[in-house]
Design a protein that fits this description.
Layout: E1 5-13, H1 15-27, E2 35-42, E3 45-48, E4 65-67, E5 74-77, E6 81-89, H2 90-93, H3 97-114, E7 120-122, E8 125-130, E9 133-143, E10 146-154, H4 187-202
Parallel strand pairs: 1-2, 3-4
Antiparallel strand pairs: 2-6, 3-5, 6-10, 7-8, 8-9, 9-10
Helix pairs in contact: 3-4
C-alpha cells in the first residue's frame, strides 16, 4: 500500500525556522508516520551547504547568511521562488537519493515542457537548466534513511542577489526564472503544477 502523503502549504516562511522544523520532524519520525511535502517561499536569505570549501561569500551584506546542513554550496532564496521540501522515508519508499534528485529534476523539466520550454538536468551540476541558465536548484540531507530539504524553482523574483554569489558554487553561472521565459504563472499555480508532477514522479496516489 502506498503510504499517505501529507501536503502542507505554509505560505511565506523564514528559512531558519522552517529548516529547524524539518530537523525536528525527521528526528521524531517513526515507521508509521506518513511522508510530508511542504510548499513555501522564503524571505531573502543566502543558505550555505556543507560543502563550504572555496565558497565565495556574498558581496553584499543586506541579506542574512545561514549555515545549513544540506549538501552543496551557496544559493539564494527569496520571494517569488517556489520551494518544495520533501520529508520522505526513503528506505520505506524503496528509493535512493539519486532517484529522488532525478524525480525532482524531472518534475521541473515536465512543467517547462508543458509550457513549450526545453529544459534539462545536468549530471555534473544538480538542478534544472534552460539554455545553460539555472532555473531550479536541489539540495538534500539524509538522516536515519529519511530526507529533508528539497527543490527551489525561480518563478517571478528579483534575481539580482544571485549576482553577489557563485550560485551553487559555480563562478559565472547565470540564473533565470519563469517570468523571463514568458511563462506567467502565479506562485500558487506554479506550486500546484510542480506538486502534481512531483507526486506522480514519486509514485504517490494517496494525498491529504
Amino acid at each position: 500500500m502506498t503510504p499517505t502523503l501529507f501536503i502542507r502549504r505554509l505560505g511565506r516562511t523564514e528559512f531558519e525556522s522552517t529548516w529547524r522544523a524539518m530537523q525536528d520532524f525527521t528526528t521524531a519520525r517513526n515507521a508509521e508516520m506518513p511522508d510530508e511535502i511542504w510548499l513555501t517561499e522564503h524571505s531573502p536569505v543566502y543558505t550555505l551547504g556543507l560543502n563550504r570549501k572555496d565558497v565565495r561569500m556574498p558581496t553584499r551584506d543586506d541579506i542574512p547568511v545561514v549555515n545549513t546542513d544540506r549538501g552543496g554550496k551557496i544559493t539564494y532564496h527569496g520571494p517569488g521562488q517556489t520551494i518544495i521540501y520533501l520529508l520522505i522515508d526513503l528506505k520505506r519508499k524503496g528509493m535512493n537519493v539519486r532517484q529522488l534528485v532525478s524525480a525532482m529534476e524531472n518534475s521541473v523539466v515536465t512543467l517547462l515542457a508543458e509550457m513549450n520550454v526545453p529544459a534539462l538536468a545536468r549530471a555534473d551540476a544538480p538542478g534544472v537548466y534552460v539554455h545553460d541558465k539555472k532555473i531550479a536548484s536541489v539540495g538534500l540531507r539524509l538522516k536515519k534513511e529519511c530526507c529533508y530539504h528539497g527543490i527551489a524553482l525561480n518563478v517571478d523574483m528579483d534575481l539580482s542577489p544571485f549576482s553577489a554569489i557563485d550560485p551553487c558554487g559555480y563562478r559565472g553561472l547565470e540564473v533565470t526564472q519563469l517570468r523571463d521565459l514568458n511563462i506567467h504563472l502565479s506562485q500558487a499555480e506554479t506550486a500546484e503544477k510542480l506538486l502534481k508532477y512531483l507526486t506522480k514522479e514519486l509514485g504517490y496516489s494517496d494525498l491529504i
